[in-house]
Design goal:
By secondary structure, this protein is an alpha/beta fold. The protein is about 40% helix and about 20% strand. The chain has 10 helices and 10 strands.
Length: about 300
C-alpha cells in the first residue's frame, strides 16, 4: 500500500536533518522532543526504512542514512509544492491572485470601469483581469457560455433571461445625439415627434424605445449601425442623428451634442448579470461586492 505522507512529519524530518538534532527541531516546531521522535518514527515506519543513523551518545549530531540522504530532496520538493499550492489557494480565496473574467457594455467599460478597476486592483496587484467590451447581446452570450464570471449590461427583457440574476447599479436617460451645429441642439429637451423630420440612424440601444410612443419613429430609421466607432463617425459627418443612453454618449467629443428625450422619458438600468445557481470565483465575488459597495457609498453621500 502506498504511503500517505503528513506534511507535519516531513517538516519534522527536514528540520531534524538541517538542524542536526531532535532538540533544536523540537524547539522550531514548538513541540516536545519525544513528540518529534515519535513523528520521525512513524514516518520511518511508513517508508519501511530508517532515515537517521543510530546515535551512540546524546551529544552526537544526527546524521542521515543513505536512504535518508536520497529522501531529503524529495521531502523538500513535496513540502515546497504543498506550500505553493496552499499559498495560491489562500491568495485566491482572498482574491489577491487568480484570473477574473467579465464582460461589459462599452458605455460602462469606458466611462465607469477605469476608475473602479483602478481602486479594486490596489488591494490585489497580482490578480489577472480580462475585460471583454461588447454589446448587450454579446455580453449575454458570454455569460450563458460561461466564458466570463459575470457581465455588466442592460436586460432588454428580463423574462427572456429568467436563468440570470440582475443587480441594478447604474441608470441613465435616453437622449438624441447629433452634431453640435444641428437644429435639434436649440432645444433643452426633445419631443419624439421632432425626430421624424430628421434622418435617424438606429443602433443596438434603439430597442430601449420599443415599448414607448417613439417606437414608430425609430422603426422608420433608414440606417442601422451596430459598431459604436462607425456610428460616431457617421454622426460627426452629419449623416444623421441617433438615440443613445447618456453613458454611451462620447461626452469629450467636441463635435457632438446630447439632448435629453423628454417625451417619452426613457431610462436604462445597467447592472451586474450572472447565472443563477452558479457560484462565482473568489475574485469575481469580490469584484461584484466591490461594485455594489461603491454604489451604496454614492447613495449614502
Amino acid at each position: 500500500m502506498m504511503a500517505e505522507f503528513k506534511i507535519a512529519q516531513l517538516r519534522h524530518f527536514i528540520w531534524v536533518a538541517e538542524l542536526k538534532g531532535f532538540h533544536l527541531a523540537a524547539e522550531k516546531a514548538h513541540r516536545t522532543q519525544p513528540a518529534i521522535s515519535l513523528s520521525i518514527r512513524d514516518l520511518e515506519n511508513k517508508l519501511g526504512q530508517a532515515l537517521f543513523e543510530k546515535r551512540e551518545a546524546k551529544s552526537s549530531k544526527t546524521e542521515l542514512t543513505p536512504f535518508g540522504l536520497y529522501f531529503m530532496p524529495k521531502a523538500k520538493e513535496f513540502v515546497a509544492h504543498h506550500d505553493r499550492v496552499a499559498q495560491d489557494m489562500e491568495l485566491l480565496a482572498k482574491y489577491k491572485s487568480g484570473h477574473l473574467r467579465f464582460a461589459s457594455v462599452p458605455s460602462i467599460a469606458s466611462r465607469i470601469l477605469p476608475s473602479l478597476l483602478g481602486q479594486f486592483v490596489k488591494e490585489s496587484p497580482e490578480l489577472k483581469i480580462s475585460l471583454y467590451d461588447d454589446n448587450s447581446e454579446a455580453v449575454m452570450r458570454m455569460i450563458e457560455n460561461q466564458q466570463v464570471d459575470f457581465g455588466i449590461s442592460h436586460l432588454f427583457d428580463e423574462q427572456e433571461h429568467s436563468d440570470k440574476e440582475f443587480i441594478p447599479i447604474w441608470e441613465d436617460q435616453i437622449g438624441v445625439v447629433c452634431p453640435v451645429d444641428h437644429p435639434l441642439t436649440k432645444y433643452s429637451q426633445l419631443d419624439w415627434k421632432k425626430l421624424s423630420r430628421h434622418r435617424l440612424i438606429a443602433n443596438g440601444t434603439s430597442r430601449l424605445l420599443d415599448s414607448s410612443e417613439a417606437k414608430s419613429v425609430i422603426e422608420k430609421s433608414q440606417f442601422y449601425v451596430s459598431n459604436m466607432i462607425s456610428l460616431i463617425a457617421m454622426l460627426e459627418a452629419g449623416f444623421g442623428v441617433t438615440t443613445l443612453p447618456w453613458y454611451a454618449f462620447p461626452k469629450d467629443n467636441p463635435k457632438l451634442a446630447f439632448v435629453a428625450l423628454a417625451k417619452p422619458v426613457v431610462k436604462r438600468k445597467i447592472g451586474i448579470v450572472m447565472l443563477k445557481n452558479k457560484s462565482l470565483s473568489p475574485p469575481a465575488r469580490a469584484m461584484v461586492d466591490f461594485i455594489v459597495e461603491q454604489k451604496d457609498k454614492q447613495i449614502a453621500e
